[in-house]
Amino acid sequence: MYKVSYEDIVRKIIQEKNLSHEEIEERITKKIQQLNELISKDGAAYIVANELGIKIFDLNKKRYKVNELIIGMTSMEVLVKVVQKYDVIEFKKENRQGKVQSLLVGDETGVIRLVIWDESQLKSIEDVTENNILLIKNGYMKENNGFKEIHLSKYSSVKINPENEFIGDVIISMQKRFQRKKIKDLNVGDNVSIAGTIVQLFEPKFYNACPECNRKINLEGEKYKCDEHGFVKENLNPILNLFFDDGTENIRVVAFRNNVARILGLNNEDVKKLKDDINKFMEIRERILGSQIIINGKANKNEMFDRIEFIADSVEEINVKEEINYLLSNLK
Ligand SMILES: [Zn+2]
Asked: In angstroms, what is the span from residue 240 Cα to ligand 1's centroid?
């Protein structure tokens, strides 16, 4: 309903701003390049309209609940709580590069992904942690593979834990980004969600990584050097291997960084301490074996061992009510 087409936006800009069609197209193309092609043509058109002070939607309401957000909204305000913060991902195509980070956020009506690629916005949320409340102003809505996402531009603002603003229990529902699959049905390349039990857990391994791009770095003389970022202060990154069983089969799961912490129920600093403390790990292992979780990620072929492995992208706790609904809907 609010999904205004690209043509409509361009028409609206022409009407209100006395610009030629070519000029507008040029601005939009420029905007797409400026944003490292991480944005659709429609999205870029919204931003250009926004920058020109054109309201695509004349909605009086400013603040929305998560389940009220609609693709195409611009300059909207939303108050959310952080459910999960994912790692910064560095991307590189041809001669352009940049960073992108996403967070799972929500309120009493549902959850949604918040996506940030703007450098200054990435900085502004650097210290944000789970359960922080964010007041987002001037965000805009984008569609990605059929899912709604809140995006921030450099014109957006994020206030962390604003005074006198509260959010009740966040409902983790709707927005299932990953389709559920049984382990026995997994194919190489599947980007899905599997739900099961941790049946085996191996001691985490650690590698020295570049704090910028998280790639493995090596000592050069007395300092660590990243091929991309030069000499950097090394970050100790964990890798966790486990076996995961959903009743149909079991699979080896590989988790990195934040996901290791989530699976072990520790913070990142405490994970690092496990490097020299096997006893502590054994203690945690005892507690974690048998726990049931949902792992979202990708089925990869391990060429060396000729087997499918699952690379964790994110980890969720099992919501019992939701699981029952899922099982019931699969009985039909
Ligand atoms: Zn690097």
From this structure: 21
Of residues 270, 49, 261, 51, the one with CA closest to residue 156 = 51
Q: Residues near 150 by Cβ (< 8 Å), separated by ≥ 6?
A: 69, 78, 105, 112, 113, 114, 115, 136, 139, 140, 141, 142
Q: How far is the CA of 99 from the centre of ligand 1 (A)?
A: 12
Residues 42 and 149 in one domain: no
Q: Is residue 264 part of a domain?
A: yes
pLDDT in tens, 200-257: 999 999 999 988 888 889 898 889 999 888 999 998 999 999 999 988 889 999 999 8
Q: Ligand 1 mean position to 215 CA, how many Å?
A: 6
What is the residue-averaged pLDDT of the chain? 85
The residue segments making up the domain with residue 303 are 179-331
Domain with residue 310: its CATH number is 2.40.50.140
Residue positions counted in the chain: 332
Q: Residue 104 C-alpha to ligand 1 middle, in angstroms? A: 25
Cα(321)–Cα(91) distance, integer angstroms: 37
Of residues 223 and 67, more confidently modeled:
223
How many angstroms is it from 89 CA to the middle of ligand 1? 11
Same domain, 253 and 204: yes
> What is the Å distance from ligand 1's center to 245 Cα?
35
CA of 234 to the centre of ligand 1 (A): 10
What's the gap in Å between 16 CA and the centre of ligand 1? 46
How close is the Cα of 90 to the center of ligand 1, in Å?
Answer: 9
Query: Which H or E element spans position 17?
Result: helix 6-17
